[in-house]
Amino acid sequence: MLLAMDDIHFYEPSTGHGLPHDPFKAIVAPRPIGWISTLSASGIPNLAPYSFFNAICDTPPIIAFSSSGPKDSLTNAEATGEFVWNMVTRALAEAMNASSAPVPPETDEFTLAGLQTAPSRIVEPPRVAASPASLECRLLQIVELHDLDGQPAAYQLAIGQVVGVHIDRAYLRDGLFDTGAAHPIMRAGYRDEYVEATPETMFRMMRPGA
Ligand SMILES: Cc1cc2nc3c(=O)[nH]c(=O)nc-3n(C[C@H](O)[C@H](O)[C@H](O)COP(=O)(O)O)c2cc1C
């Protein structure tokens, strides 16, 4: 059924959304969280969440996170050519949130958030020991985003190729990673909203012809 024009709130972002709060991130939701660990050029560990994040290729595996200006994660990834993605679960939500505090580059957010580190195997930045899965990455490129007029956008996109994958065997069932059992959380729309994936919220659907 086609909705009547009056039933649709339409806006052009360039002229404003006309709502109390920008709905963009509530519409493109839930978004997976890139919990990114890096090392500074002088070796200080850094950890921060990025919800402008996703996997963008599987052959080879490539992931990307987008930074509003050159925050520490982007600066470190650019300086060292390395970053690690860590899965955020419901049990780690509060620690993830603590790691998003606006602190200077000298502050180690692993310590700030009370998190144990675990060594990576191929790259230098440590992993979040309690994450069910982590992805070691080498930086491919940093893309300066631009708008339709060629003006710089507020964000820069860091793209990395996954060169090492860690999976906690507790979440492997018959060789399959049990996403629901890991209870990953995702970012929803407004300031404080999240979604948790659980075994109950997972469902199955085969692709046509598959
Ligand atoms: C769930 C969540 C998602 C976030 N997503 C982003 C994001 O996509 N891009 C961004 O620039 N900041 C994002 N932030 C804010 C950063 O985590 C925050 O600015 C942090 O201090 C950056 O740390 P860093 O300077 O150590 O990299 C997010 C915060 C939270 C809690």
Beta-strand proportion: 35-45%
CATH-assigned fold name: Pnp Oxidase, Chain A
Task: Please state the overall shape, judged from the principal axes of the Cα atoms.
Answer: globular
- Main β-sheet, spatial strand arrangement: 3-2-6-9-10-5-4
Give the class-level CATH name: Mainly Beta
Number of domains: 1
Helix coverage percent = 10-25%
The CATH architecture would be: Roll
Q: Provide the succession of SSEs.
A: HEEEEEHEHHEEEEEEHEE
Low-confidence stretches: none
Largest sheet: 7 strands, antiparallel
Total number of beta strands: 14
- Measured between the Cα atoms of the first and last residue, the distance is 30 Å
Which secondary structure elements does this structure contain, and how are they paired or packed?
Blueprint: H1 24-27, E1 31-32, E2 34-39, E3 45-50, E4 53-58, E5 61-68, H2 72-80, E6 82-86, H3 93-98, H4 109-112, E7 117-118, E8 127-128, E9 133-146, E10 152-167, E11 172-173, E12 176-177, H5 179-182, E13 185-187, E14 194-196
The chain binds flavin mononucleotide (FMN).
Could you provide a short overview of the structure?
With 210 residues, the chain is mainly β. It contains five helices and 14 strands. Flavin mononucleotide binds next to strand 3, strand 5 and helix 2.
